[in-house]
Structures are given as structure tokens and as C-alpha cells.
């Protein structure tokens, strides 16, 4: 199977082997997708027609030798230079966005070298994972990546002087995007970045003067306008954002006034092109005084979070709330008592979160947390799962455990891509952590360390995975490593090729390990 071969090739020890080439003839048909794919190109590495063009131009069938690919690509580009540029643009995180055009009076040999370097980088990027540190972001603060994978948001921290002549740590919102590095904060306030919409156009975060209340904020990156979001007269915090059909919808929490206030799940709605802003409570009732909204679907129709269950001693339970079905509690995995929902797929059909044997608060000697996936299922199929002891049926779907990495006792899901790739981390009772990725196409739960270790030049342990883009190719995560001064931690950005997407479109890019020749003609 192409999937297994590609995973072994790109995710395990990499040995260069001479490939025997077998190229397509002009009449050798490229088969259409073997199963349905999402119609929106936002969720595909490449559209099928573009892949077909590339496969026919490059004669890709049983293997690839880069020199041959380079020659055929060059020949194809003379007739259709947009093929490769479109190809590059569909790979999030790819720096090879523009095919190099020949400069006036540029030597042909130099231009040929630039073209070859472009092609080599592009083809490598399709096949191999990459990892780079994000030096500016404070690794103790939240980070987020936009749906298109091009914009990262977090917090920059730096020392600031105090009136007493000492110094303390100051925080401002940091944004890393294709247009460069951006730093901003309201005047005289500290701030941190918490989220970003699909296109990187809108940022959410919080601001607060030292020791005082925290306020939710929203920034339009194009205009630079910074808006303070409405609240319930005290602390508020946005946690997820969706921009869809002229509206921006933000999920989060707000605290009402009064003694010992509890958080309430809220939804902010902003009309684009106007100053209209509304705030609404969600997932709460008179009997549910504690709730949090943690995620929102890409189309803004479905929200997930945690709310007290008045029918079960006010224990915390994961909830899903949609425009179609309203508010529903998801329950827990078998024998557990509490749960929380952390993220949701593009159209609300998959929810991820954590189920707790003893509860969401406190430390326990025994295993407590299990990451779960809730999947919407057609009503006529739900009966098939009623006898499965490992499945919880609730709200028109099924909840199941994601499993556990070997040697660990607890697992935590933190985020999900628009198309269902899940990230999180596992922990043991000695405070050892290991980031994971869960995907059916790579065999369920896998340690991110094991998938990318062979491609790293440093000894890095990835401890938590925090954010993932829409098609699951870009992941932001925390990694620990040792320096001469001692242990250190940093935010990293990892790019994973989506071999499964290629296979779903009926394209067998290669079946053997390719030769990477430096002599590209």
C-alpha cells in the first residue's frame, strides 16, 4: 500500500536507495480519486487536476529520480509556468511560493541553477517533514496557528523597568505572518495572543494592567484596529474564532460580577464592516452556573466546551451546541465522572476532548484522564454501537478513547484540524510528557518524536502539541532540549506532508525511496 510505504519512507529512518524509474507514457491514464474528497481546495494539498498535470508532465509512476523530474518539469513549465506556482501555493508553510522568473540580462546558467533549486526544494517539501524553532514566542504562554498555516500568534515577553528601579516581565501580543513579525499591545497594558482566524486576518487575545482584571480583545490585522470585547463587568477571555460569510464569531468565557464568580461560556458576534458587537451566554442555564466555551467550527455554526450537569450533581461535562440541534451534553467515557471538549472539526461532526475518572481538578495517584473523540453518526447506525462497552452514545454520536502512548498513564487532546487530525500529549505520574498526533491514516496515536526524530539535527523532545492548522500539515508544539546552560524549552513549528491526501486523490507519487541528486539539470 502506498500509505504504508510513504509513512515508512518519510516517518522512519531514511536510507537513500537507487530507484529504478518507470515513467508514464503520454497515454497512460491517471486514475480519478478512489473515494470522495472535500470539494474545497482549502483541505487538499493539491487539486486532482493539478496533480494529474504534474504526474503526466513528470512521467511519475513507479519512482522518481530528481534529475529526470527536473528535466520534465522544466519542459512542462515552458508551456504552462503556472502549474508549479499553483502547486507550491497549495502546500501550507512552503516558502517556495513563486516560480523564479528569469531576470533581465541574467545568465542562462545562473537562472537554470535557481530553477533547479526551486524544484528540488519544492519536491523535498512534498515528501519530508520539517521543524523550525519560533524564537520569539514565550513557551509558557498559549500559541495558535491560522487555518491556512501561514500565521502564528502567541506572546512576546521581555523585561520592563518598574518605578522602584527594578524590572519585571512584560507581555505583548506577537504575530508571525507572511508579511513579517508584528508586535502590539494596548497602551499601558500587558497582553497575550490566544487565537487567530482561518486566514490570519483577525487575532484574539487578552489585555490587563498588572494585578487587575483581564479583558478580551480583538484585532483586525489589515486595519490595525484593536477592539475591546464586551464582558459581564469583570474578567473575560476569548478562546476560539471563526470568520464566515461576513460575520466573526468568537467563543470564550466571561465572569459576572459578585462574590466568588464562576466562568460562563459566551459567544461574541461581530458584523464585518460595522461596529456592531453582541455578547450572548451559551451552554448555561439557571442550574448550570459554571461553563466554558473552548472551540468553534470553521463555519461558526457549532461550539464546544464544558458545562455543569444539573442532573448529575453539577459535575462538569463536555457539551456541543449547534444552530441545528441546540445545546447537548456529551457525557463521559465508561466509568468516568467528568469531561471537557477542547476542539471541533470544520463542520462540527467531530469533537475532541478529555474524559476524567476522578475529576478535572486535583492530582491523583491513579490514571485519571483519557483523550476522546466524539463522532457524529447517522441515527440509523447508532444501534450498532449499543453493545460496545468502549463506546458512549450521546447527542447523535459516539465517544471513544484515543488510546495511550506506551509507558504513559494519562492522555490529553488539545486541538483538532478541520478534517479530523488530532493532537495532544500524554503524561505519567513522574511529570514526564510526550506530544502525540492521532490520525487513522497513520495507525491511530503516534508520538510526534517518533515521526520526526530522524529529520532533526538536535536532540529535541516534544512535550505538548498546542495548535494545528486546517489540513493538519502545520503543528505548533513545545519542545525541550539541553543547552550548555542547562535544560531549555521552546515553541517549534512542524510541517507534516499529507500523503493520505495524495492517496485519496488516486495519485501514487512514488513507490520506492527516491535518489536525491545534487546534480540537477
Fraction of helical residues = 10-25%
Mean pLDDT: 76
The beta-strand count equals 29
Parts with pLDDT < 50 across at least 5 consecutive residues: 1-70, 90-97, 504-521
Helical region count? Answer: 7
Q: Roughly how many Å is the radius of gyration?
A: 24 Å
Distance between the termini: 32 Å
Coarse structural class: mainly beta
Strand content: 35-45%
The strand order across the widest sheet is 18-19-20-22-21
Global geometry: globular
Sheet having the most strands = 5 strands, antiparallel
Q: Domain count, please report it.
A: 4
Description of the molecule:
The chain has 521 residues and is mainly β. It has four domains: 2-128, no CATH class; 140-228; 243-401, no CATH class; 415-496, no CATH class. Helix content is 14%, strand content 39%. The chain has seven helices and 29 strands. The protein has helices at 2-11, 48-58, 66-79, 82-89, 108-127, 448-452, 499-504, and strands at residues 130-134, 144-145, 152-161, 167-177, 180-184, 190-196, 202-208, 215-220, 226-228, 233-244, 247-256, 264-271, 277-281, 291-296, 302-309, 315-322, 326-331, 338-344, 350-356, 369-376, 392-394, 397-401, 410-416, 422-427, 433-439, 444-447, 461-468, 474-483, 486-495. The strands form seven sheets. A five-stranded antiparallel beta sheet has the order 18-19-20-22-21, with no helix packed on it. Strand 21 (392-394) and strand 22 form a beta hairpin. Helix 2 (48-58) crosses helix 4 and helix 3 (66-79) crosses helix 5. The chain is globular and about 75 Å long.
Amino acid at each position: 500500500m502506498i500509505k504504508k510505504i510513504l509513512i515508512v519512507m518519510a516517518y522512519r529512518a531514511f536510507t537513500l536507495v537507487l530507484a529504478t524509474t518507470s515513467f508514464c507514457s503520454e497515454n497512460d491514464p491517471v486514475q480519478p480519486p478512489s473515494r470522495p474528497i472535500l470539494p474545497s481546495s482549502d483541505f487538499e494539498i493539491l487539486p486532482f487536476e493539478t496533480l494529474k498535470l504534474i504526474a503526466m508532465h513528470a512521467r511519475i509512476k513507479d519512482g522518481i529520480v530528481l534529475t529526470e523530474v527536473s528535466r520534465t518539469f522544466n519542459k512542462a513549465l515552458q508551456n504552462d509556468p503556472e502549474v508549479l506556482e499553483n502547486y507550491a501555493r497549495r502546500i501550507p508553510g512552503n516558502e517556495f511560493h513563486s516560480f523564479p522568473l528569469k531576470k533581465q540580462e541574467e545568465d542562462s546558467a545562473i537562472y537554470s541553477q535557481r530553477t533547479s533549486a526551486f524544484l528540488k526544494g519544492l519536491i523535498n517539501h512534498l515528501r519530508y517533514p520539517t521543524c523550525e524553532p519560533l524564537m520569539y514566542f514565550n513557551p509558557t504562554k498559549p500559541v495558535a496557528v491560522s487555518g491556512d498555516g501561514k500565521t502564528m500568534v502567541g506572546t512576546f515577553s521581555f523585561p520592563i523597568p518598574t518605578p522602584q528601579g527594578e524590572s519585571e516581565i512584560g507581555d505583548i501580543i506577537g504575530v508571525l505572518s507572511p508579511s513579517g513579525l508584528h508586535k502590539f499591545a494596548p497602551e499601558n497594558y500587558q497582553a497575550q495572543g490566544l487565537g487567530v482566524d482561518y486566514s490570519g486576518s483577525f487575532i484574539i487575545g487578552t489585555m490587563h494592567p498588572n494585578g487587575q482584571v483581564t479583558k478580551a480583545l480583538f484585532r483586525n490585522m489589515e486595519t490595525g484596529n484593536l477592539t475591546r470585547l464586551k464582558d459581564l463587568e469583570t474578567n473575560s477571555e476569548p478562546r476560539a474564532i471563526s470568520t464566515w460569510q461576513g460575520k466573526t464569531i468568537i467563543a470564550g468565557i466571561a465572569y459576572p460580577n459578585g462574590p466568588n464568580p464562576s466562568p460562563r461560556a459566551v459567544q461574541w458576534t461581530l458584523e464585518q464592516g460595522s461596529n456592531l458587537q453582541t455578547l450572548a451566554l451559551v451552554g448555561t442555564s439557571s442550574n448550570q452556573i459554571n461553563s466554558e466555551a473552548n472551540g468553534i467550527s470553521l463555519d461558526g455554526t457549532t461550539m464546544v466546551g464544558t458545562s455543569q450537569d444539573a442532573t448529575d450533581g453539577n459535575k462538569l461535562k463536555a457539551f456541543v451546541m449547534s444552530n441545528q440541534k441546540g445545546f447537548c451534553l456529551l457525557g463521559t467515557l465508561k466509568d468516568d465522572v467528568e469531561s471537557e471538549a477542547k476542539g471541533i472539526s470544520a463542520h462540527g461532526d467531530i469533537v475532541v476532548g478529555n474524559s476524567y475518572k476522578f475529576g478535572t481538578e486535583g492530582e491523583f495517584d491513579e490514571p485519571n484522564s483519557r483523550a476522546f473523540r466524539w463522532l457524529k453518526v447517522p441515527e440509523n447506525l447508532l444501534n450498532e454501537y449499543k453493545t460496545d462497552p468502549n463506546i458512549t452514545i450521546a447527542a447523535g454520536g459516539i465517544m471513544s478513547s484515543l488510546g495511550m502512548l506506551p509507558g504513559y498513564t494519562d492522555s490529553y487532546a488539545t486541538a483538532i484540524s478541520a478534517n479530523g487530525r488530532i493532537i495532544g500529549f500524554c503524561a505519567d505520574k513522574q511529570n514526564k510528557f510526550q506530544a502525540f498526533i492521532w490520525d487513522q491514516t497513520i495507525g491511530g496515536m503516534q508520538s510526534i518524536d517518533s515521526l520526526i526524530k530522524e529529520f532533526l539535527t538536535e536532540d529535541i523532545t516534544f512535550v505538548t502539541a498546542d495548535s494545528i492548522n486546517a489540513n493538519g500539515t502545520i503543528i505548533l508544539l513545545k519542545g525541550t532540549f539541553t543547552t550548555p546552560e542547562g535544560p531549555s524549552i521552546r515553541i517549534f513549528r512542524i510541517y507534516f506532508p499529507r500523503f493520505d491526501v495524495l492517496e485519496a486523490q488516486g495519485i501514487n507519487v512514488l513507490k520506492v525511496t527516491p535518489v536525491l541528486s545534487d546534480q540537477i539539470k
